Amino acid sequence: MSTIDSAVHLPFLAQGDSEAVPVVLLHGLSDSWRSFEPLLPHLHSVRAIAVTQRGHGDAPKPDDGYDVATLAADVAGVLDDAGVDRAVVVGHSMGSIVATRMAIDHPERVSGLVLMAAKPTFDVPDLQEFLASAEMFEDPVDPAFMREFQESTVARVPVDGIIDTAVRESAKVPARVWRALAAGALRADHAGVLGHIAAPTLLAYGDRDEFVTREDQETLLRGIPDARLRVYEGAGHAMHWEDPGEFARDLLAFVQQRVD
């Protein structure tokens, strides 16, 4: 485990040949770099950099900076201090919001974009109850809620132990960070600026996702100039927890075929 210098010092795990294509992995809400533990053993041909974003896991938890632009700037800082000019940026759920903003605000740093379980915006009627509840959280956040939340992200049997790991990592996120993200990054709306994304883009969607719809994917496909969709039949919101090998094969094929 290492740390990098950016607006905050972010814990990350790096593996792979330093000359290989860099792939930055951004986790979802309340997760950490450990969200990608099932995936990392399969990423044998890239330089994988799994980051813990501010407010999460063992990362610093400042009082502010939970808007999407600042979170994206944190990722640019990771690249600076890792000595990486351009990377494939992979974001899951909340991480997809940050990855999208990274591609818009820092296009010269993004050689490819992978959006897992993504929406143009999470500020939609179906999620208003969830966002409003998170904006009211107080410490300690209910452990039963955290387990229910993590279990809701899978539709198939996940990799052994990943749900327990995710619940433990979620417990590290203070209520004020949940509130700040629910009011900030999770309400970002990129629908009107998707056309600014220049990087080749892979959309990964589980057709039993409880948070994201096929219509969301069609909106992203229409809006992003160079995008393609991979649908995981029977999969939920966290398809990389259910079959990490399958997702890794698709990710590596995308890197090889679409990215310089």
Briefly summarize what is shown.
This protein has helices at 68-82, 94-105, 128-134, 143-151, 162-170, 175-183, 214-223, 239-242, 244-258; strands spanning 2-4, 10-15, 22-26, 47-51, 87-92, 110-116, 201-206, 227-232. The protein has 260 residues and is of the alpha/beta class.
Quick tags:
260 residues, Rossmann fold, alpha/beta, 9 helices
Describe the structure.
This protein is an alpha/beta fold. It has one domain: Rossmann fold, CATH 3.40.50. An eight-stranded mixed sheet has the order 1-2-4-3-5-6-7-8, with helices on both faces. α7 links the parallel β7 and β8. α1 packs across α2 and α4 crosses α5. The radius of gyration is 16 Å and the shape is globular. It starts with a strand and ends with a helix. The N terminus is likely disordered.
Q: Sheet with the most strands?
A: 8 strands, mixed
Q: List the uncertain runs.
A: 1-6
Number of structurally distinct domains:
1
* Percent of residues in β-strands: 15-25%
Helical content, roughly? 25-40%
- Please state the average pLDDT score: 95
Distance between the termini: 28 Å
Looking across the biggest beta sheet, what order are the strands in?
1-2-4-3-5-6-7-8
Strand and helix order: EEEEHEHEHHHHEHEHH
Describe the secondary-structure layout.
Elements: E1 2-4, E2 10-15, E3 22-26, E4 47-51, H1 68-82, E5 87-92, H2 94-105, E6 110-116, H3 128-134, H4 143-151, H5 162-170, H6 175-183, E7 201-206, H7 214-223, E8 227-232, H8 239-242, H9 244-258
Parallel strand pairs: 3-4, 3-5, 5-6, 6-7, 7-8
Antiparallel strand pairs: 1-2, 2-4
